[in-house]
Amino acid sequence: MHSADGMLTLVFNGEIYNYIELAEELQAKGYVFKSHSDTEVILHAYREWGEDCVQRFNGMWAFALWDSAQNKLFASRDRLGVKPFFYLRTADQFIFSSEIGGIRAVVPVTEANLGKLHDYLAYGYRTNNGETFFKDIFELKPGHVMVSQGGQISFRRFWEIKPNQPAPQSRNPVAAYADLLRDAVRLRFRSDVPVALLQSGGIDSSVICTIVNDEIDSNRLGVETVTAFTATHPGHAFDESGPVRELMKTCPHIQSVELSPNGDTLAADFRDYVRAMQEPMGSAASYAHWRLMQEVRRQGIKVVINGQGADEALAGYGQYIRGYRLLDLLQTRVSSVLAEARAIRRNMPWGYASLVAQTFKAMLGRRAASRFRARFVERSFSVLRPEFKREQQGYLPDLGMSWDGKNLDRHLRSQLQDYGLNQILNYEDQSAMSQGIEIRSPFVDYRLMEFAFALPDEEKFSGGITKKILRQGFSGRVPDSIINSKIKLGFAIPFAEWLKRPAMQDLVRRLVDSPAFKSRKIWDAEKLAALLTDPKASARGFPAWRFLMVAVWLDEYEINNA
Fold it and tell me: Which residues make Cβ contacts (< 8 Å) with residue 21, sequence separation at least 6?
């Protein structure tokens, strides 16, 4: 889109949810709008507030704006990196795109970023460090702006979750958080096409579902019904159809549709899926999500809302964070450690030995703990060539133990800005957009993130209870079996069982027998083939998914340095 005087040109991917309020503010300042789009709001906002305009946006975006008066390219990516912004610099070009495929269509990069590849294979991480799996292709980091002017390129961070966020100015933080969440949901229902829900049996999406139902009941969304799509796995322990059906009894305005993506098509789809995702993805959940998006597209839906982001902000992954909670108590209130340990044991399905191990992991720091897991738990180190491990051993950034009793907060902020959430947002956006579907996540609203990280740890995780403020805010509205659930499943996928199926076994055998697989410089092909063809290895913890994904990715993208 061009400005009326032709001096500004904008390319934009995403949504500015508060564009109506911003447009009204800009109109009051004399700006004239020719459309009702959030794109035009960005143009006028830049002209009024300059590079600081991004501070006023509530949404998800990646955009580049050419200011011809200043011969300046101004680019930005949203605070948490929902929307991608990839780029490549050469001696005489700056190429940018919303997907890696756009860049490779101009410059056919065929070398891998070996550090990124190592950390993925060894530890399962896609670190949010501004690099991609392709050598020389980078991504603008979340919460950053970039300026290219006069032959110089500079980067500046405009938002981050800092330690010691100011406490929420509210006498009732539970009610205040719930009200903010309702507003975030209302903003994300601004659309010129129908909006649907991605529904699980977990707390986060169930809370959103009840909010949507009740907002419809109060005539605040302008619709009468909303469709909710659920991925089910009939016959498996983590099938969530039961809780979802119970939830739907309390949400008469929500129409439930159950879909069952499964492993029957994985072997046939695998290469198409790898090409569609463009980079290696952390788990088979991304495949199930891709299949789910295909089904949602067939239903004619273009926009969906999910519950992503609450776990990172509100300490939801109890299995992985309980050690940090105990470590903080050991440093600050040792007399409370035993009671907290008992409460965790009572409210989470793991024993004391596991709790001790998680506390020890928190003390080790990320790098040492990751290496321990790679060596003794997943055994990923056993198949990587020694020289490959040695050359890349310093790539993974460390997050060591602190002595200030703030280990849980540091871990959650790191998960939000450096590790876990970035991986999830990456695969969800790539998966959905490959099918022409836009995903919106109310919990990723920056106001909710700032609020959550200003809360004391006890209001997020204490007494063995995770996400306390969310549970308290919607207790009595969401069914007790969901809001008080002690089990955190995530988007659980039975990949170990899928791998045993004949079609997948055939795919694996053909892959490990190929000359390309045997000639790779990053792994011991004989050892890796033995583990990949052993149906029990994945069930015992070997990350077969990651190695299969990379083996096919290396082939499909003709990578020649691995």
Answer: none
With a CB cutoff of 8 Å and minimum separation 6, the contacts of 5 are none
CA dihedral 527, 533, 535, 541 (to 10 degrees): 30
What φ, ψ does residue 522 adopt, rounded to 5°? Answer: -95, -15
At residue 88, the 3 state secondary structure works out as strand
109 vs 103: CA distance, rounded Å: 8
Residue 288 C-alpha from the chain's centroid: 15
pLDDT tens digit sequence for 281-299 = 989 989 989 999 999 999 9
| Residues 80/449, Cβ–Cβ less than 8 Å | yes
Residues of the chain whose pLDDT is less than 70? 237-238, 488-492
Token output for 464: 């063995």
- Give me the domains of the chain, ranges plus CATH numbers: 8-157 (3.60.20.10), 173-313+421-483 (3.40.50.620), 319-417 (no CATH), 495-556 (no CATH)
Q: What is the pTM of this model?
A: 0.94
Q: How many CA atoms lie within 13 A of 464 on its CB side?
A: 21
Residue 398 CA to residue 535 CA, distance in Å, equals 34
